[in-house]
Amino acid sequence: MTNIQLKELVTKAVTLHRDIAAQNERLKKFKADLIREARRHKADFTHTDSGSSRWTVSGTDGCIARVNFPVPALLSLVDSESETFDNILAIAGECMDQLFESVYYLRPVADFREEAARALPGREADQLIDLCQNTSAPRVSFETAESKVA
């Protein structure tokens, strides 16, 4: 790719990125309007097997919008150091073992990579670090310049 082609690619990508961002903002507003309107039509909600509810409305061309109101999601874990934990213990009482699994987990310390390199020999530090990280996909971000006025 030549330098000119690369510059043109960046310009096209940034322009598209701006357009998508603007359209996403517009879509967010439409969705917020639909949610607001759905709340005014609770009598028309359909209840699902999962306990959720749904409002469905048609557009002028036969398209459909569904506004789903899911049941609140359960917490994946309750931190033993949170205020919620003490309240849960108090309410669950003797049923604690029946309602909850006690799970032990590890959380890497701040500056984990540096601490591991300091605490363990080189190869072991690298192996431990590899075990404690997820691969991240590359990301592209844009910095937009002020538009040139002709």
Q: What are the salient characteristics of this protein?
A:
150 residues, mainly alpha, three-stranded antiparallel beta sheet
* Side-by-side strand order of the widest sheet: 1-2-3
Please provide the count of β strands: 3
Distance between the termini: 29 Å
Strand content: 5-15%
Bin the helical content.
Answer: 40-55%
- Count of alpha and pi helical runs: 5
- The gross shape turns out to be flat
Unreliable runs: none
The major β-sheet equals: 3 strands, antiparallel
Q: Mind telling me the C-alpha Rg?
A: 26 Å
The H/E string reads: HEEEHHHH
Label the structural class: mainly alpha
Mean pLDDT: 91
Topology:
Elements: H1 3-39, E1 46-47, E2 53-58, E3 64-69, H2 83-92, H3 96-99, H4 112-119, H5 122-131
Antiparallel strand pairs: 1-2, 2-3
Helix pairs in contact: 4-5
Description:
- Helix content is 46%, strand content 9%.
- It contains five helices and three strands; from the N terminus they run H-E-E-E-H-H-H-H.
- The chain has helices at residues 3-39, 83-92, 96-99, 112-119, 122-131; strands at 46-47, 53-58, 64-69.
- It has a three-stranded antiparallel β-sheet with strand order 1-2-3, with helices on one face.
- Helix 4 packs antiparallel against helix 5 (122-131).
Quick take:
The chain is mainly alpha-helical.
